[in-house]
Design brief:
- The structure is a single chain.
- The chain is α/β, with parallel strands linked by helices.
- It is built from 14 helices and 26 strands.
- The protein folds into two domains: about 350 residues, Spore Coat Polysaccharide Biosynthesis Protein SpsA, Chain A, CATH 3.90.550.10; about 100 residues, UDP N-Acetylglucosamine Acyltransferase, domain 1 (3 Solenoid).
Length: about 475
């Protein structure tokens, strides 16, 4: 079948699902790049490292300006993820992150803080995907004390990797994928919320990943962007060896613009350069501060279709079946918009503002006594802990999927004095146990092990 006809089929498929014309046009742009065998790569020879950035510790003088303007900001959360890598089938933000509190509860607590101390009712804005919309709306329908707005992002058809034809002959849930979060601006505008907030006098939005519990509205950062007329600010973190595969900030040589290079945009020949954390020192936290008037202007200039770079992700058609057929998901990322705004900046933050939950090992750290809520309703490392960040390694066979993990931690151990914690094999934690220093548990038997002691320090315990 000629690809002209394939594109016609894609357009028909998307129109049948009532997707707006500008969404279809944008997807065809990404699809045509894929036909040309473009993978959205940002080559090493076209960029140079970002070296000198302002740090959060050096902008505290803007705090009062931020306080004076706190009524001009809204809080946005990217709420499209299911957490399929953890075996979840509902909105990830419904997951309990501390005893009695899920992600949504934490968002509400953070907003309540401003009600209590500033008498300001900051709107909470959620961008849901078709995967999470129902769960999210059901959760919030009983909360009339939250100034909440939600909108649905668009969707893209999956493309078979081998034929580059759209997926059509399958269950509806396997045909579509969320298009990344690069459609945040267009979807916010399309549902009329952008104009609503501008009419209400709001000028800025702080948007972050829903699973990042360190992302809270900060007076100093708000004051900094206002004082310096910044249209788009990205919070970045200094990379460590564990961050070498993440999206990182670079400078494009042709125009000296800040550009985000995601992992999927790294050419295989450039992998060594991209993972060099000394050369490319900063990764994107996806904590973003954006001027709403600038967003509206850019959208109007581009007919609501931002030319964000292609992010071509290779996935299984059924994400929970790693043997299912390979497809391309053609996506864009909200952080990549940094190159579209005339006055964009990046700010180096500490990892206190970046505490994402991507794996069950992240969840175990949060559940433990390592993390507590501070006065900003932000989960932070307890002041009682003086050690470097803990390294947790859990056996994927027994602890990768949430249900398996959850069933094995009926009681969460104390890790506040633990440097590293490793589990190999099947264990059940059903009583209070304290781990100190470097502890490794190995079960080489075919039976589940219940620990007989309540204290372990700097030891490897092997069960044969």
């Amino acid at each position: 079948m000629p690809f002209k006809k394939v594109k016609e089929d894609i357009v028909e498929l998307m129109k049948k699902d009532n997707l707006p014309d500008f969404v279809i046009k944008n997807f065809i742009r990404l699809y045509e790049a894929t036909l040309k065998n473009e993978a959205g790569h940002i080559r090493e020879f076209c960029i140079k490292p970002v070296i000198d950035l302002k740090e959060y510790e050096n902008i505290k003088q803007y705090e009062n300006i931020g306080k004076e303007n706190i009524g001009k900001i809204i809080l946005g959360k990217l709420n499209g993820g299911l957490g399929t890598s953890m075996g979840l089938d509902k909105a990830k933000n419904l997951l309990e992150v501390k005893k009695g509190f899920n992600f949504f509860d934490v968002f509400r607590m953070q907003i309540d803080r401003f009600k209590e101390f500033e008498d300001i009712d900051i709107p909470l804005v959620l961008m849901n995907s078709f995967n999470t919309n129902k769960d999210t709306l059901e959760y919030f329908e009983n909360y009339d004390d939250v100034n909440i707005h939600s909108f649905l992002q668009f969707k893209h058809p999956k493309i078979y990797k081998d034929s580059l034809h759209p997926v059509k002959e399958m269950d509806e849930k396997f045909i579509w994928n969320p298009p990344g979060h690069g459609d945040f601006f267009a979807a916010l505008h399309d549902c009329k919320l952008l104009d609503h907030f501008l009419d209400e006098g709001y000028e800025y939005i702080f948007v972050s990943n829903g699973d990042n519990l360190g992302a809270v509205i900060d007076y100093s950062i708000l004051g900094f962007i206002i004082s310096n007329n910044i249209d788009f600010l990205m919070e970045v973190v200094k990379r460590t060896p564990s961050d070498k595969k993440g999206g990182h900030l670079v400078l494009r040589k042709s125009d000296n613009k800040l550009v985000l290079r995601e992992s999927a945009q790294v050419h295989s020949d450039d992998k060594e350069h991209s993972e060099n954390i000394v050369k490319h020192s900063f990764f994107n936290s996806n904590n973003l501060w954006i001027n709403l008037k600038s967003v509206k202007k850019i959208l109007e200039e581009n007919n609501n279709c931002l030319n964000l770079p292609l992010i071509r992700n290779e996935k299984n058609i059924n994400p929970q079946n790693l043997k299912s057929e390979k497809v391309f998901q053609l996506e864009t990322g909200i952080g990549c918009a940094i190159e579209l705004f005339p006055n964009s900046e990046a700010l180096v933050i500490s990892k206190e503002r970046f505490a994402p939950v991507k794996k069950c090992s992240d969840l175990l750290a949060l559940w433990s006594d390592i993390y507590i809520f501070n006065k900003h309703s932000q989960l932070v490392i307890s002041p009682k802990r003086s050690l470097s960040p803990i390294v947790i390694e859990l056996d994927d066979v027994y602890f990768k999927m949430f249900n398996d993990f959850n069933s094995r931690f009926s009681v969460v151990p104390s890790l506040i004095d633990c440097t590293s914690f490793s589990i190999k094999g099947d264990f059940l934690f059903n009583k209070n146990v304290k781990f100190v220093g470097d502890v490794k548990l190995v079960n080489n038997t075919s039976k589940q092990v219940v620990l007989d002691k309540d204290f372990y320090k700097d030891e490897e315990v092997i069960f044969e």
